Amino acid sequence: MYAPWVLHLRAYMYVLAGHEALANAILNKAIMLCQQHGNKLEESWITQNQIWWFGVFRQSTSDWFSSTLTMPSWEGWTQRS
């Protein structure tokens, strides 16, 4: 069944758009579907993402922004052969 996987992807899009409460609700629905159908693999991926997206390991927006400013440019990597 693909419904939990599609819900997982939809939740990711909501996280990117800043709608975290809606994303978490969708993930909870996907977990419920996984449990009903015995899809342990997708359930574990969803649970892991919930921890990373909403748990104590979550990176703040300001930390993420400052990290992106110090990343190397892609131009240097694409010109190497």
- The whole-number mean of residue pLDDT values reads 86
Based on CA inertia axes, which overall geometry fits? elongated
Order of helices and strands: HHHHH
Q: Helix proportion of residues, in percent?
A: over 70%
Question: Number of helical runs?
Answer: 5
Structural class: mainly alpha
Q: Unreliable segments (pLDDT under 50, ≥5 consecutive)?
A: none
Rg measurement, Å: 16 Å
User: Please, how many domains?
Assistant: 1
User: How is the main sheet built?
Assistant: none
Residues in β-strands, percent: under 5%
Write down how many β-strands occur, each being a DSSP E stretch of 2 or more residues: 0
Terminal CA distance reads 43 Å
Protein name: Tetratricopeptide repeat protein 38
Structural write-up:
The chain is an all-alpha fold and 81 residues long. The protein has one domain (3-67). The chain is 77% helix and 0% strand. The protein contains 5 helices and no strands. It has helices at 3-17, 20-37, 40-54, 61-69, 74-78. The mean pLDDT is 86. This is Tetratricopeptide repeat protein 38.
